[in-house]
């Protein structure tokens, strides 16, 4: 966790199957797409465009964020650097490793963010104060 930086975060392309009859596309997450077993699934929706979500880091949990509909920005911080990633394609997701601060913002109308997490919810895994996050990174 302490050694993870914003460069440890990665965009993963989800395989897309294009229907030849133009009935829509299908994307599948299976096998070795993610480097962990999915233990929890949740999603954010009806988020006002001026609202911020996230505002925390995880000690052990990996999360894969997918823009199922619409778009949003993910602001990533590792204590030294900052990076903003715009997610707007449902066949591309963002893998966030432990030890990275994340904030979600600029939600488009109708945006849906699906999250596939490596751990079940556990409050003690969260660091919700940025100053405490910084302290935890240097320990």
Automatic annotation (TrEMBL):
One Pfam family, short name: FdtA
Domain Sugar 3,4-ketoisomerase QdtA cupin: 9-136
Database matches in SUPFAM superfamilies: RmlC-like cupins
Cross-referenced InterPro entries: QdtA_cupin_dom (IPR008894), RmlC-like_jellyroll (IPR014710), RmlC_Cupin_sf (IPR011051)
Top-level lineage group: Bacteria
Annotated protein name in UniProt: WxcM-like domain-containing protein
């Amino acid at each position: 966790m302490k050694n993870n930086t914003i460069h440890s975060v990665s965009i993963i392309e989800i395989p897309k199957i294009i229907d030849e009859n133009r009935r829509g596309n299908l994307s599948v997450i299976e096998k070795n797409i993610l480097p962990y077993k999915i233990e929890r699934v949740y999603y954010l929706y009806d988020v006002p465009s001026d609202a911020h979500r996230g505002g925390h880091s995880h000690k052990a949990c990996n999360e894969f964020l997918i823009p199922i509909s619409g778009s949003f920005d993910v602001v990533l911080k590792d204590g030294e650097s900052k990076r903003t990633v715009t997610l707007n394609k449902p066949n591309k997701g963002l893998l966030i490793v432990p030890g990275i601060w994340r904030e979600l913002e600029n939600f488009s109308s109708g945006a849906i963010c699906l999250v596939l997490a490596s751990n079940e919810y556990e409050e003690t895994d969260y660091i919700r104060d940025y100053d405490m996050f910084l302290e935890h990174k240097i320990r």
